[in-house]
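Journal club side-thread
Mid-discussion, someone asked how the predicted structure for our own chain would compare to the paper's figures. Pasting it here so we can look after the session.
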Amino acid sequence: MEQLIINAISGAVGGGASGATLKQFDMGAIGNVIAGLIGGGLLGQIFSAIWPQLSAALQSGNFDIGSIATQVVSGGVGGIVLQIIAGYVKNSLMK
């Protein structure tokens, strides 16, 4: 559960930052954060599934700085990716 929370928070921050930075994909502050939250949670979980040794270390309760940093990065990147995709789709539909 902790890794999902870390991924979601990191994704929300990443989505908000990418929306503020990449104006062509901006969906408003709330839209950016929601897309980032979902993207961070989903893609962070997928990342953990791809690397089973990371997932096993996290599920055993052996949190260390390296695994937390990995979750923050994967959640943040997931949030950025989904926010950009959602912003692109929204802008395409508005045209």
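Post-session note: The chain has one domain: 2-90.
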